[in-house]
Design a protein that fits this description.
alpha+beta, 2 domains, 5-stranded antiparallel β-sheet, 3-stranded mixed β-sheet, 5 helices, 10 strands
Length: 194
């Protein structure tokens, strides 16, 4: 839909939709306004659409940048999360821990947003942040032929081996509706922490 209002090459399709009465000229004007206010470009229009912040979605790992398209009341926002985003194996499939550097997962995973309390520095209180939890691995077989082990309950997407990658709620709230963030807090902060 963004391309319909973003690209000049789709003007004939828009005109045809109006001529056939499938959309109105007012809806075309509203679509153009939303795309313009959202700061969309051809490059940014290739992101994942997340209709509800609690939805699960597929994420290729590792990744340096994740751009999400998130509808709000009267506009569509794009939330760009800068990486690194990855997943490292903490233990081997038999439950033992590896002495070497943990393997990095390379493949697609089903993830979802959660909020959690994380310590920001030694001795300080924990802050509430946005995290991504890996629920399932779609490419469990690693390039070395050994299956990648995901613990029961999943694992948080990491910035580096063993360090959860988190995003501050203050910056996320510019893109995600406050009601959606509150829903995440109610769902995941009932006494839980990382």
């Amino acid at each position: 839909m963004v391309q319909l209002f973003l690209s000049k090459c789709y003007e004939p399709i828009r005109d045809l939709l109006v001529a056939q009465g499938l959309i109105t000229p007012e809806q075309v004007a509203e679509g153009k306004r939303v795309v313009q206010q959202g700061g969309w470009t051809d490059k940014l229009s290739h992101s994942r659409i997340l209709e509800v912040v609690t939805d699960e979605f597929v994420l290729p790992l590792p990744q340096s940048t994740l751009t999400l398209t998130i509808p709000r009341n009267d506009t569509i926002t794009q939330y760009t999360m800068r990486g690194p985003l990855g997943l490292h194996e903490k233990c081997l499939p038999d439950g033992s821990h590896s002495e070497s550097v943990p393997r990095e997962y390379q493949g697609h995973a089903i993830v979802r947003f959660e909020v959690a309390r994380v310590p920001m520095a030694a001795g300080r209180k924990k802050n509430v942040v946005l995290v991504l939890r890996v629920l399932r691995l779609l490419d469990q077989q690693g390039p070395d032929g050994i299956p990648f082990h995901l613990p029961d309950g999943g694992e948080l997407v990491q910035g580096s081996a063993g360090v959860a990658r988190y995003f501050r709620l203050k910056s996320a709230s510019k893109y995600i509706l406050p009601t959606a963030l509150e829903a995440l807090e109610r769902k995941y902060l009932s006494g839980n922490s990382l």
